[in-house]
């Protein structure tokens, strides 16, 4: 197990099993921007936590045949991040992210460079202000797989946006390209999902799903008809929606939901 804490000049690897290498540098001539590089050399788990304002470019390299899980938990701050994930042949990376932030603007670039590389990406957020997430998923290796699942609940002054683009060039055969983006918008504020698939090869399975809306009347009514108050019903529905697919930071995510739906 490894643990990385983002905390300005104190950004550090606090625990390590020796299966990753880690570098951090503060960028010259830039205001509090950090360059961080993580190389995953053998099967392992990584925890990443950040609880204050932070700006960074992060590169994660997963070497050949390595299977890794990366769990990220962000709260409280204003964040501006660019991520780049590079996966070599038969590399397998699962990413789980749980956010309860002030604002966020992120660009995520995923390069599946090796044949049979695979990424599973699960993102969960409760949005109370402006959050924007952009994804570019490049299938450069044959038989590569991407499953990108983004779920958010938008409340208070929130405005949430997911832009997800998947790319497969001619000759990159046997790929699975999957996107599933859903926003539960409990405000009158604008939320946006833009799913894009740019596929230049016939031998590919590609799917996307996008939904913006509220919890259905039938779901809420069913719970209220069993004596559950409306706010508690929303709490239960939100937990069912956001906790799905999460294996780490489940307790923390449940506490975040309880904070907004007491």
From TrEMBL:
InterPro entries: Fe-S_cluster_assembly_SufBD (IPR055346), SUF_FeS_clus_asmbl_SufBD_core (IPR000825), SUF_FeS_clus_asmbl_SufBD_sf (IPR037284). SUPFAM superfamilies: Stabilizer of iron transporter SufD (SSF101960). Transmembrane segments: none annotated. One of its GO terms (biological process) is iron-sulfur cluster assembly. Residues 56-241 form the SUF system FeS cluster assembly SufBD core domain. It comes from the Bacteria. This is SufD family Fe-S cluster assembly protein. It comes from Candidatus Coprosoma intestinipullorum.
């Amino acid at each position: 197990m490894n643990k990385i804490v983002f905390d300005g000049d104190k950004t550090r690897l606090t625990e390590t099993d020796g299966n990753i290498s880690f570098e951090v540098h503060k960028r010259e001539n830039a205001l509090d921007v950090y360059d961080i590089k993580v190389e995953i050399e053998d099967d392992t788990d990584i925890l990443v936590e950040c609880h204050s304002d932070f700006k960074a470019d992060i590169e994660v390299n997963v070497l050949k045949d390595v299977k890794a899980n990366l769990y990220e938990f962000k709260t409280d701050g204003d964040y501006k991040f660019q991520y780049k994930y590079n996966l070599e042949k038969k590399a397998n990376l699962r990413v789980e992210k749980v956010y309860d932030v002030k604002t966020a603007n992120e660009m995520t670039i995923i390069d599946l460079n090796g044949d049979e590389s695979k990424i599973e990406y699960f993102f969960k957020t409760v949005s109370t202000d402006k959050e924007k997430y952009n994804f570019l998923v490049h299938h450069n290796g044959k038989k590569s797989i991407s499953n990108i699942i983004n779920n958010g609940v938008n409340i208070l002054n929130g405005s949430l946006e997911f832009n997800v683009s998947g790319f497969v060039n001619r000759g990159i055969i046997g790929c699975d390209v999957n996107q599933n983006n859903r926003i539960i918008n409990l405000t009158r504020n604008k939320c946006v999902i833009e799913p894009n698939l740019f596929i230049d090869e016939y031998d590919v399975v590609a799917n996307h799903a996008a939904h913006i809306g509220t919890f259905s009347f039938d779901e809420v009514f069913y719970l209220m008809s069993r004596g559950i108050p409306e706010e508690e019903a929303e709490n239960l529905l939100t937990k069912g929606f956001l906790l799905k697919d999460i294996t780490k930071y489940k307790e923390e995510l449940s506490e975040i939901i309880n904070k907004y739906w007491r």
